[in-house]
Amino acid sequence: MEKNPALFKKKPILYLHKSTRTLKPLTSNILIQVEKATVQYLGKATFQQLNFTWEKGQHWAITADSGLELTAFLETLLGTTHLPDGHVVRPFSEDYIRTKTEQGSVNSFRDLIAYVSQQYRFRNKSNLQNFYFQQRFNSAESEQAATVREYLEENSPQIPGPWSLERVAELLRLNTLLDSSILKLSNGETRRLALALGLLRQPKIFLMDQPMTGLDQESRAAFGDFLQAIIREEIHVLITTSSREIPAGITHLAYLNSIGIGNTWTSEFFPEVHGGLAPPSWDWNLLKTFLPKNKENKGPIVQLRDVTIQYGDKRILNQLNWEIKDGERWLLKGPNGSGKSTLISLLIGENPQAYSQHIVLFGRKRGSGESIWDVKRPIGFVAPELTRFFPSNQTCRKVVLSGFFDTMGLFKKTTPDQESKADQWLGLFQLEEVKDQPISRLSLGQQRWTLLARALIKAPSLLILDEASQGLDDLQRALFKLTIEKICESTSMAIVFVSHYASDIPEQVSKTLDLGILKTEKSPNQ
Question: pTM of the entire structure?
Fold first, then answer.
């Protein structure tokens, strides 16, 4: 790389080298450097003294006790946080910016960066973000969304490079999904789509915020192959992740705290990093008073008999039989695309094909005159993608209150008793400070606790948790698991729990429905 005269004229920029504690000049090997930065993210001081040097040939994994800190770090590299003190330099983009400037083209260092965050949003064919949650299960209405192929073609910048749509689809196993609506993708498939879109930017730098979140075990195991394939094309990679999940291809590991980079390691000496912080805790006695009292067992609350769901030629569920009794705790598992989301949509009343099936919920058969609100009333539901479907004006408090009405936002007048209960849940989950902020501006952890409060506020008989702790840092995941365990200890509430991580499953979850096994047991031509 040619040195920028502006940087090296007179006095060179210096940085503090961690191992020697001496000042060294900025070298041409440096891609990005953060020096003595005070960082504000989402209106709060996140780092006090952030120093970080990323050199050519290095591929980083960043871990921390706080998911908020991980996201703030990535946003700092991307230049979207506020730095009252310190600075960030990005020598990797100097040649590109100089060339584009000489050509009279608008340019930015971000042109060379792909960033896959935890909060990507899709738009419909009219370029409007007005999807609603039920669309993904309605064959006709989901056609308003682009197919995977259309979405990749329409959103890929026309930049020459090694990554074609066909090559990206093969690498990320999207070939069989190219003609599917983006609304019908599972969480893991949606994550792979976001990674594909990042590659089609032909980036020099690829930033990924917990990219293995939502991926099934097979996809997580293959993620190292994906990284090594893009590294061979001279893409430099930085991911945030758990220290327990460092994929192949990563050469350097860093641990973040509220000051900045605490420690760094090379691949020869990767440890299992623990920050030493104890998981936070709630007032468990107070939680118990908010939960519904135990009831006498009145038989099954869910009965499915020979349920078959099909979209076109693709059969998602085939003659499924399942029964959930009051107080039972079930693990629903299976690889990405095995039908978990479709099955849940039948339980929560969002799938119109339920009317043609033998489905009995709380003693009442679907299609016997019940309204969708009758179906939803005794069920609490949490899934990470729900935050995408709330209108932009919905605050944390309004989202919690919307749980009384089972709507994606608050559109009715609430009673003083309902408002009091919402404030109690906000206090329990320590959300008072952000209660008036739009849910889209909350951290991922705050969003998850908001959704859990929304689900629990109406004291449901069945709680469905669809990868509800997805994207949380290690401490928050531990707290989420403990919270569900306390709920199980204190109430007879039935639970359906979905997670690709065995360590996240509460100990009281004792029954399993594995859709992956069921698919292999059915006819091969299904």
Answer: 0.75
